[in-house]
């Protein structure tokens, strides 16, 4: 079975590439390539780019790409109904891809063979002197209010019209595993949301790389970038406020996945997240079902308004 091993990128369309670049630079990404028609932004890791914006009159989410481990897996995916042939990517970095379309029309590409970029050298995470362990000796924490480097694209969240159909589509093509579910209060068997993770055996992976949620508003809810630590989240939070960008929800800590989160709106209304300190699991992890209220999904911090979940 083809197996996804990472998120390669999310792709958008927007009318002003310069404005998108200014926001994403303040958010912690760096221009990797681009021209008058397309903008490619990278993180501090080895992915050639993570965030793509194509110039268009109307802003919209255009799709996402998942990386697979081999050309043979692309061939398997190309043989499935509704898949494109294996084709050469026309984006910087090259590689090969198979284009597929989810039931709600999201373009999902499987990608292999794209060139990597040298990783950016980052500071070490700041050591925390808690009540039991004091690893920071003869040293102080000095945090700058500045853009924080986005290490990588950690996950994205899709709102879909048919949860079960969409989860089946993703798991059958990419061998994803469920980490946890959302169920209706009092009706645990009625699942309306599933956190999906990569299946890399004994290797530790994020609690989720895709969240699929049943919704009347079909589309992308948000994409999320991992940063170094809590100080990076908070320094970037203050910097983004100073630049006049729009805070959505944050800072707080999620219940499902445990991430410390900070959500912002880009200039075209798309929600983007900084996160740190998320759960990691291996293939033995078994999912549970959460049936609490929306308010209970935040352990502490700024509580999302109800429209955040719609």
TrEMBL record:
GO terms for molecular function: metal ion binding; methylmalonyl-CoA epimerase activity. InterPro entries: Glyas_Bleomycin-R_OHBP_Dase, Glyas_Fos-R_dOase_dom, MMCE/EMCE_epimerase, VOC_core. Pfam families: Glyoxalase (PF00903). Residues 152-277 form the VOC domain. GO terms for biological process: L-methylmalonyl-CoA metabolic process. Gene3D superfamilies: 2,3-Dihydroxybiphenyl 1,2-Dioxygenase, domain 1. Keywords: Metal-binding. This is VOC domain-containing protein.
């Amino acid at each position: 079975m083809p197996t996804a091993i990472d998120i390669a990128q999310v792709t958008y369309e927007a009318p002003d590439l310069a404005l998108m670049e200014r926001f994403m630079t303040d958010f912690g990404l760096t221009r990797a390539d681009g021209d008058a028609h397309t903008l490619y932004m990278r993180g501090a890791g080895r992915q050639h780019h993570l965030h793509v914006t194509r110039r268009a009159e109307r802003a919209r989410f255009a799709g996402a790409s998942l990386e697979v481990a081999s050309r043979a897996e692309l061939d398997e995916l190309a043989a499935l109904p509704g898949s494109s042939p294996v084709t050469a990517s026309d984006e910087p970095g090259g590689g090969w891809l198979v284009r597929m379309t989810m039931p709600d029309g999201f373009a999902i590409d499987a990608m292999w063979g794209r060139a990597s970029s040298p990783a950016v050298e980052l500071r070490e995470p700041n050591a925390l002197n808690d009540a039991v362990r004091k690893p920071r000796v003869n040293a102080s924490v000095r945090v700058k209010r500045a853009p924080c480097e986005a290490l990588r694209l950690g996950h994205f969240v899709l709102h879909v019209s048919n949860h079960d159909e969409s989860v089946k589509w993703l798991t059958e093509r990419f061998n994803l595993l469920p980490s946890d579910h959302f169920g209706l209060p009092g009706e645990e068997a009625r699942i309306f949301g599933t956190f999906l993770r990569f299946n890399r055996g004994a290797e530790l992976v994020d609690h989720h790389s895709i969240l699929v949620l049943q919704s009347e508003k079909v589309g992308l809810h948000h994409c999320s970038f991992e940063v170094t630590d809590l100080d990076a989240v908070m320094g970037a939070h203050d910097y983004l406020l100073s630049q006049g960008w729009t805070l959505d929800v944050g800072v707080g800590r999620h219940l499902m996945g445990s991430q410390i989160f900070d959500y912002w709106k880009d200039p075209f209304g798309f929600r983007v997240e900084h996160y740190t300190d998320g759960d990691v699991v291996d293939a033995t992890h078994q999912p549970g079902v959460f049936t609490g209220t929306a308010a209970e999904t935040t352990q502490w911090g700024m509580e999302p308004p109800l429209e955040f979940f719609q």
